[in-house]
Amino acid sequence: MKKKIFVFFPDGVGLRNFAFTDFKQIGENMGYDIHYWNNTVFSLKDNLGFEEVRIENHQIHSLTPLYSRARKRIELNVSEKKFNDKVYPTYKFPFNNNGLKNKLKSIYTKLLIGLYNSEKGIERIRKKINDLERSTSKYAYCKAQLLEHKPDLVFCTTQRSTQSISALLAAQDLGIQTVAFVYSWDNVPKAMQVVETDYYFVWSDLMKAQVLQYYPFVKEEQVFVTGTPQFEPHFDLNLKETRNDFFKQYNLDINKKYICYSGDDETTSPLDQYYLEDLAYAVRNLNSKGYNLGIIYRKCPVDFTNRYDAIIESNKDVIEVLDPIWKQVGTMWNEVLPAKEDFKMLYNVCAHSEFVTNVCSSTVFDFVTHNKPCIYYNYEQPQLKKGIRDIGQNYKYVHFRSMPSENAAVFCTNKNDLEELVQQILDDKLSNVEEGLKWFEIVAGETPTKASEHIWKAIKNILA
Fold it and tell me: Which InterPro entries does its entry note (predicted)?
C-alpha cells in the first residue's frame, strides 16, 4: 500500500519549490500518494490539477504573534550573549508604536521578553505557544482533517510560519511523523524557526551545523541534508529559449548587451532605486565610449512601492522593465505567489544577461549557475539619513560569512568605481564565477540538481 504524504503549505512561499518544480512527479515515481495540505488562497486543484485538502480555518491564537515576536527577540538576545557577537541585534525589527493598539502589543511583547529572556525561557515560551495553539479551533479543525485522511507523514514546506504550528501539533499528537523544510539560506541565524518537528530538511552541511548550533534541543539524527529545489530549474535545458526568441518576446534590442538589475524589497534596501540610477549612469557613460548596453530591471516580487518609477522613466532609453510573473492573490506579502512561467523567464534573464547587480540578494546564485558574475553594491547613498537603514549591515549578517573568499561576489564599495567594474566584467577582465560556484556549493549543497530526489529519499528513510 502506498504511503500517503501531506505536503503542507502554511503560506505561499513554498509553492515555487514544491508545486512548480518536478518535486511531485519525482515523489509519485517513487511510489508515494501525494496530497497537498493547503492553507493558502492559491488552489492547487484548480490551477495545477493536484489533489489537495484545503484548510479553511486560518485562526491562530490572538496571542501567538506576540509570543512569537518575543521568542525571536529572546533567541537573538541569547545568541548575542552566547556567541559574543553584535550582529544579532541587527536582525531585530523596531517595535511598532503607531496607535494605541500597536503600543499595547509592543508593551506586552517587551514584558514577555523580560519574563522569558534566557535559554530556559525560550523553552517555556515555545511550550506556551504550543499550549495556545492547541486551544484553538484551527487545531481541532486540522486534527479532524488528519483523522479523516490519515497521512503517514506531513512535510511542511517552510519552518517560519505561525500558521503551521497548530496543524503540525495536531499531526504530532496523532503520532504522525512531521518534517520541516528550512526555507531560506539566511533563516537559521535570524531566529526564524517557528515550528518544532520530528525532522528538519536543510540545504547543506553548513545549514545542518547551524541548526544544531542554534537549537540545542534538535539532535543530529533529526537533520537531513537534502539541498533545495529552488535552483533545480536553472539546470533544466528545456526552459532555455534562443536569444532571438527571448529578445523578441520581451521587445529587447538584439544588438544590445543587457545587464540585469535585480531589485530588493524596501526593508533590505530602502534606497534601492538609487543604485539602479547609478547603474544607468554607468551604462550611459559606457555607451558613449562605444559599448551598446541596456539594463533589464527585474523587481522584487513583493515590492509594491513606486519608488523606482521616476528613475525608470528618466532612463527609459537604457532600462527595460521585465516584471517577474507573480500574481497577487491577497493583501499580505506572502500572498503574492509565483506563476510557473516565471521559472522560464528567470532562466532566460540569467542566460541572456551579461551579469547581475543587486544589494545582497541570493540572485548571485541564480546567475552563477549560468556562469554569470554578480556585482554587489556596498556603499552608502547620499540620500541616507537618520531612520533609513544602511545596506552595509546586510553584508555583516551571518549568512555572508559562508563566502569562501571576498571574491565570491564583485563588491562595489564606491559609486565612482561602478563604471570601471562594469567595464572590466564586460571585457572579461573581472569575474566572481569561480569563487561564486564554490560559495554556491557551500550554501546549496554539492548536488543542486538532485534536491527533490534527496528529499523523497529522506522521507523514505524516515518511514522505513
Answer: TagF_C
